[in-house]
Specification:
The chain is of the alpha+beta class. Strand 5 and strand 6 form a beta hairpin. It is built from four helices and six strands. The relative contact order is 0.17. It comes from Novosphingobium anseongense. InterPro entries: NTF2-like_dom_sf (IPR032710), SnoaL-like (IPR037401).
């Protein structure tokens, strides 16, 4: 039977998982507040030279600004490993990002696979990222022919998911 320490570890790991999922939702729904909540105010993010290096919350603002020029985007995390040490943790999460853009009347898809390498701290009962580095595994851009459209998702809080989740605790 699990003791209090084991149960707390499960709760802490679940909170970190939820924060990683919230990060993906924030960039896909262009939700600044949700993304800012994933990072502590004094955090630092390194997405690579020429991509973004600076405050963690600034990464959200930069990514959302970049995504604003795209036609669609979808991010997922998987294979999440979390190592706990009290109110500190480290994690590795595999990321898949697909984004679409129009250029010269043609639609292109950007495909990125990378890993988020994060250091976390639990402050005032809330887990947040204090340091993020991104390790890129591969990426590509290719012209695509969409199978169907228009899609019924939205890149803001008018997305159907917001009304489905309204009134529930995330």
């Amino acid at each position: 039977m699990a003791g209090e320490k084991e149960i707390q570890a499960l709760l802490d790991k679940q909170a970190i998982h939820e924060a990683l999922y919230a990060y993906c939702r924030s960039v896909d729904r262009l939700d600044h507040a949700l993304g800012h909540a994933v990072f502590h105010a004094d955090s630092h993010a390194d997405y690579g030279e020429g991509v973004y290096q600076g405050p963690g919350r600034g990464a959200i603002d930069t990514i959302i600004k970049q995504h604003d020029g795209l036609t669609s985007h979808s991010h997922q995390v998987s294979n999440v490993l979390i190592a706990l040490d009290g109110d500190r943790a480290g994690s590795e999460a595999y990321m898949t990002g697909t984004m679409r853009m129009l250029r010269d009347g043609k639609e292109f898809q950007i495909f990125v696979r990378a890993r988020y390498l994060d250091r976390w701290e639990k402050r005032d009962g809330r887990w947040g990222i204090v340091q993020r580095a991104v390790a890129y595994d591969h990426d590509e851009v290719r012209e695509v022919i969409a199978m169907r459209g228009p899609h019924n998702s939205a890149r803001d809080t008018s997305d159907p998911s917001y009304s489905f989740l309204q009134g529930f605790t995330l």
